[in-house]
Amino acid sequence: MKKGITKSEAWDFKRRWEAVNFIERKELKETPLLQKLQKLAVLMASVKPLGWGEALLEDEEGVRERWKRLKRVYYETT
Known about the structure:
Oligomer: single chain
Strand content: under 5%
Shape: extended
Order of helices and strands: HHH
Distance between the termini: 50 Å
């Protein structure tokens, strides 16, 4: 049984994912705003039927704290 990957295999893996990420970013930039908003509306409408409401509320304070921390770090470094 193989125990790991070689350095060359790791670099190949990284390069493939970099290519995937590049394409995803390109597609996202090219997606019209209306389509992005429609997708967001579908996600927001799914919260209640999928039972995500409580889980989202439980983590809301944690999310707010992370945003505050990011904002603070951003303004300290700019």
